[in-house]
From TrEMBL:
Residue ranges of coiled coil: none
UniProt keyword Chloroplast, yes or no: no
Name of protein: 3-hydroxybutyryl-CoA dehydrogenase
EC number: 1.1.1.157
Stretches assigned to the 3-hydroxyacyl-CoA dehydrogenase NAD binding domain: 6-183
Site (Important for catalytic activity): H140
Short name of any one Pfam family annotated for the protein: 3HCDH_N
Binding site for NAD(+): G10, A11, G12, Q13, M14, G15, D33, E92, K97, S119, N143, K274
3-hydroxyacyl-CoA dehydrogenase C-terminal domain sequence ranges: 186-282
MF (Gene Ontology): 3-hydroxybutyryl-CoA dehydrogenase activity; NAD+ binding
GO BP terms in the entry: fatty acid metabolic process
Keywords for this protein: NAD, Oxidoreductase
Keyword Oxidoreductase: yes
Amino acid sequence: MEVKTIMVIGAGQMGNGIAQVAAQAGYTTFMNDISEDLVDRGMTAIAGSLDRMVKKEKITADDKTAILGRITPAVTLDPASECDLVIEAVVEKMSIKADIFSALDRLAPGHAILASNTSSLPITGIAAHTGRPEKVIGMHFMNPVPVMKLVEVINGLATTPEVTATVRAVAEAMGKIPVECRDVPGFVSNRVLMVMINEALWELYEGVATAEGIDQIMKLGMNHPMGPLALADLIGLDTVLAILGVLQDGYGDPKYRPSPLLKSYVAAGWLGRKTGRGIYEYK
Ligand code: CAA
């Protein structure tokens, strides 16, 4: 199936990154959020990211104008009626995703694929809120979206091979490398990553080393581009806690229990880079 028009639901750090790479790939793109302010902030973030690329001479100033021109902001879901593919990237709450997918199912044309960028919620469970479970799939982008090469493609129980092939082709057109996996809690990426991040948070809680020390050890010793605590701040501590909850519920294994430190940081609203304070402070 040919995809020409894409709608991204959610203009936050993942949503605006996905809208950016969609527009860079030449797709007609809608970017939706619930208020003008949120959509404006998403557009500003995209402009900033494109400015970086202009400065590095990866694109020209004219390319930037053309890419921005392909993105139409939207505060309702109505443009879904014109789309071949919708990619949802809202908060990791099943009740909110359920409402969005049932609305999208009503609005989007029959051929349209409904994808979720969820980092761990079950694709099959999301699909159950639509009348087209065979056209529902996970398209899990990594943060920062314009830079990271992977799209983890998660096949729900009912997802058809044609839908998977279409989504793989779109990811490739966006300059990404799609890799498939089954619909299990945390998929492949976060089942591994969250255990590492949580273990680092337990070490910090126990005073095994400073935050800087833990991150340095993992950067220098394992050649990771950033330490697990800095990465947790990039992902968002609330998201890390939510994913650990999905892993704990999904597998019933205490190895996924979150560090108490993580819970108190989230309760304090210290969510990482996006709030200016997480494990580290950001000015
Ligand atoms: N838009 C455009 N370009 C960007 C960018 C953005 N938002 N952010 C960074 N870049 C570019 C920079 O311009 C730079 O380009 P050049 O290589 O041409 O110089 C390049 O990316 C590297 O950036 P920096 O030099 O600023 O910084 P860095 O070298 O420290 O890299 C990083 C930053 C790419 C974030 C790197 O630290 C990294 O790869 N970190 C790990 C990220 C990671 O693991 N992400 C996955 C998180 S898990 C997830 O997202 C899924 C989930 O479900 C939780």
